[in-house]
Amino acid sequence: MTAVTDAPALAARAADAGRPRVGHIDFLNCLPLYWGLARTGSLLDLDLRRDSPERLSDALVAGELDISAISVMEYLRHAEDLVVLPDIAVGADGPVMSCLLLSKVPLDQLDGVPLACTTTSRTTVRLAELLLSEKIGVRPEYFSCPPDLPTMMAGAPAAVVIGDAALRASLLQADTFGFQVYDLAEMWREWTGLPFVFAVFAARREFVAEHAALVREVHAGFLASRALFLDEIDVVCHKAARWAEFDADTLKRYYLSALDFDLGDRQLAGLREFARRVGGSAAGFPADPGIHLLDTERAG
Ligand SMILES: C=C(O[C@@H]1C=C(C(=O)O)C=C[C@H]1O)C(=O)O
User: Quick check: keyword Heme in the entry (predicted)?
Assistant: First the structure.
């Protein structure tokens, strides 16, 4: 794994350049952060890469980024190399609206049936597999597919989708394709009573060791951005509705009632419960992984 071995050198180079390399999920779910970073001017202090979650996850693990959102499955696999930023995440404590299982047949009929999984997700696809095997008692034939709904549904009666593609599928395309929509965060909540965390924000451990104050600054910038977004939510949703496919009320519902951007004790309990249920040698991480949180008071 050359990329991982080179990571400290890459991190040192980035810090020399003065701006940390930060990964940002290019979905509507992370618009709150982007809005705030742009409004406060913090955006100019970051070397920001906007990309889909699976690519950002790989880039953080490879040391091509210093701080990034990372899909929880990838975080758990590389928890030893990463430090989690507290109080911020992408999750839900009930229906999330954008991490969905779509199916043309009842879920208990999915045994042995092809099920298309979006290539953009590492966590939601694992959550779907967990719920289907443990809660519903079926084992479909999972295959990866780019997040294009016609292609996914041409090859299978069911699909797992996330992000904007999932919002589009449930809000705009369900009638055309004739599937039922199952919200995976809602199913998790009913099953466990806990919130679900899909992505955390993490910094590479050696980057924190060398640039703790900078990481704390970026973290504070994220929290301030989210707060500013919430103050200005009506304006943001009206502006975003001009170019997004969804109206302002739908966006506001997504940000205020569906997504949960916190990472506190309850969310960490949800994350640990997920690790307990899916961890083991096949997953590539233990059922009880150590979660290192950034010390926001002193050096990280
Ligand atoms: C809520 C969401 O959370 C996401 C789900 C992810 C995954 O399944 O791997 C990764 C990052 C997040 O974007 C979403 O994409 O809609």
Answer: no
Q: Best substitution site from 30, 71, 170 to test ligand 1's pocket, by max atoms within 8 Å of Cβ? A: 71
Q: Which of 50, 90, 144, 261 to mutate to test the pocket of ligand 1 (most atoms within 8 A of CB)?
A: 90
Q: How far apart are CA 84 and CA 5, in angstroms?
A: 21
Sign of CA dihedral 94, 156, 73, 284: positive
Q: For residue 267, report the distance from its CA to the centre of ligand 1, in Å.
A: 15
Q: Domain total for the chain? A: 2
- The range of the structural domain enclosing residue 261 comes to 2-92+196-278
Which of 192, 226, 252 terminates a domain? The answer is 192
Give residue 163 CA to ligand 1 midpoint distance, Å. Answer: 6
Pairing of the two strands 21-25 and 67-71: parallel
What single-letter DSSP state applies at residue 18? T
Tens digit of each residue's pLDDT, the chain (300 residues): 334 445 455 555 455 557 999 999 999 999 999 999 999 888 889 999 999 999 999 999 999 999 999 999 999 999 999 999 999 999 999 999 999 999 999 999 999 999 999 999 999 999 999 999 999 999 999 999 999 999 999 989 999 999 999 999 999 999 999 999 999 999 999 999 999 999 999 999 999 999 999 999 999 999 999 999 999 999 999 999 999 999 999 999 999 999 999 999 999 999 999 999 999 999 999 999 999 999 998 644
**Distance in Å, CA 96 to ligand 1 centroid:** 10
